[in-house]
Specification:
alpha/beta, Rossmann fold, Helicase, Ruva Protein, domain 3, Zinc Finger, Delta Prime, domain 3, 4 domains, five-stranded parallel sheet, four-stranded mixed sheet, 13 strands
Length: 527
């Protein structure tokens, strides 16, 4: 019977486990020093080696001839655990055995000494699925098990475990495996299977797998069914991905404001049975690559794409403003969410493409524009009825503003900074922002803030957050988040003001001019 690759090439020793040295090194050292714990908790995303390491550990503690913390793999115990003939190592699926009675049965079995091994090992997979009653029934046994019993709990959702369970275990966190490590492993497997795989194809599989080795090997298995020479094109066809050229062409259409071309590309992809939600996710990932290129000096090390695709993406990034890229990602994420809630995916994708192809000013939120225009109209009425003498010249019936915007002087900035104290609640504010937009919230990662009188002064080496703060809608949301966290209203400012150009947003600039002139402008975004 054919064995799928992820089972055939499952690691048998700690040394074979890829990308989890922080776990395997510690376990091997404990085994060599004979410091084995009675309960372990393995947590991490899918396909990262939790069950594999559990089985290796079960063999290692019972192996008759262990070597350097690893099982020998040749003794009767190791072979018996591998083929399932030794019943002292029990693997339990907590998703289907999650009741109190199941745990009670486990406790009764645990009292019996092992028949063929030194330890009876219980591997409880997806342990977060146990009921509250089952967890309570397991507590005492987990804390003080018989000397011949070892528990290994594995879960992808550790936050669902009671703290009383976690405190009784040695916890090991499994990280997502890097694309480079996955690609190297795929190349090794292909060599053993007499299959040729291109480096770009291996990296593409690694990117799709999102850090999960099992997912990568499963996709490689499918690709090997197509051909013994695996190219990037074969991977894309097997995974149902759009060709990168279509993403580049769609981005070019957005750059050129060519909605007809964008819809034509979407139509061709739809005719080729491409899933529109998947297309939207891929386009989001493409614009994320553009965002990283524009903000990181070493973006090439982060992006898992071919060299030619990187150069083409870099060319497109040079033509786009960072603020526009962030807006596009927000729009695409919103479209993806709508598609997953049952709307017609093709229509939603076409609407999104048209929205992205119109001039940048038109992509702004309509209600925000209406609010700002209403505020301007109100300001004009006030100005005409009671114009400030120092800032307005009369020419017939028209009023012209002449007062420039006053930025804080050096002395004023120094005074604000002298009185400023670190805002300890700033990380909570950033997390609150992420609730309505993870993309916007990520723009404030690494930033700090200070409170000085009625001001919250933001400081960051990343210019993205200041691009966001130049937008009235984002400032209002920021002020709302600050008020929710602190219970107080603050004005926003920068901790330092480097030389920079005046805002290119005409409406925002006009509102600022009115305020500088002493004209009260009602902000109708505030509730």
């Amino acid at each position: 019977m054919y064995r799928v690759l992820y089972r055939k090439y499952r690691p048998r020793f700690f040394a074979d486990v890829v990308g989890q040295s922080q776990v395997t090194d510690t376990l091997r050292n404990e085994l060599k020093a004979n410091r084995t714990a009675h309960a372990y908790l393995f947590t991490g995303s899918r396909g990262t080696g939790k069950t594999t390491c559990s089985k290796i550990l079960a063999k290692a503690v019972n192996c008759l001839n262990p070597h350097d913390g690893d099982p020998c793999g040749e003794c009767e115990v190791c072979k018996g655990i591998d083929d399932g003939s030794i019943m002292d190592v029990v693997e339990i699926d907590a998703a289907s055995n999650n009741g109190v009675d199941d745990v009670r049965l486990l406790r009764e079995e645990a009292n019996f000494t092992p028949a063929n091994t030194r330890y009876r090992v219980y591997i409880i997979d997806e342990v977060h699925m146990l009921s509250i009653g089952a967890f309570n029934a397991l507590l005492k046994t987990l804390e003080e098990p018989p000397a011949h019993v070892i528990f290994i709990l594995a879960t992808t959702e550790v936050h669902k475990l009671p703290s009383t369970i976690m405190s009784r275990c040695q916890r090991f966190d499994f990280h997502r495996i890097s694309p480079q490590d996955i690609a190297k492993r795929l190349e090794d497997v292909c060599e053993k299977e007499n299959v040729t795989i291109e480096r770009d194809a291996a990296l593409l599989i690694a990117g799709i797998a999102d850090g999960a080795m099992r997912d990568a090997l499963s996709l490689l298995d499918q690709c090997m069914g197509h051909d013994s020479y695996i190219t990037e094109e074969i991977v894309r066809k097997t995974a149902g991905l759009s060709d990168k050229s279509h993403l580049l062409a769609l981005t070019d259409a957005i750059l050129e404001n060519n909605a007809a071309e964008a819809i034509d590309i979407i139509g061709k992809l739809h005719s080729a049975s491409k899933d529109m939600a998947r297309l939207c996710e891929e386009l989001t990932e493409h614009f994320r690559s553009i965002m990283l290129i524009k903000t990181m000096k070493q973006s090439r090390d982060v992006l898992v794409i071919s060299e030619s695709d990187f150069e083409k993406t870099k060319e497109q990034s040079d033509k786009l403003q960072l603020s526009f890229v962030i807006d596009v990602i927000d729009i695409l994420q919103s479209a993806t969410e709508k598609m997953l809630h049952g709307v017609n995916r093709r229509i939603e994708m076409e609407m999104t493409a048209v929205k992205l192809c119109v001039p940048k000013e038109s992509t702004a939120n309509t209600s925000v524009l209406e609010t700002r225009i209403s505020a301007l109209e109100e300001a004009v009425k006030v100005l005409r009825s009671n114009p400030p003498a120092q800032s307005v010249k009369r020419t017939g019936s028209d009023s012209l503003l002449s007062a420039p915007i006053k930025r804080p002087s050096q002395e004023e900035m120094e005074k604000l900074r002298r009185e400023a104290v670190p805002m300890t609640q700033w990380p909570e504010v950033v997390e609150d922002i992420k609730k309505y937009s993870r993309t916007v919230g990520s723009g404030f990662e690494g930033s700090t803030a200070y409170i000085s009188g009625k001001y919250v002064l933001v400081d960051s080496s990343n210019n993205i957050c200041f691009e966001l703060l130049r937008k009235p809608a984002q400032r209002d949301r920021m002020r709302d988040s600050i008020k929710r966290i602190t219970g107080k209203e603050y004005k926003l400012g920068r901790y330092s003001y480097p030389d920079e150009e005046k805002s290119d947003d005409a409406l925002e600039q006009l509102v600022s001019d009115f305020k500088s002139a002493g004209v009260p402008v009602e902000d109708k975004n505030k509730k």
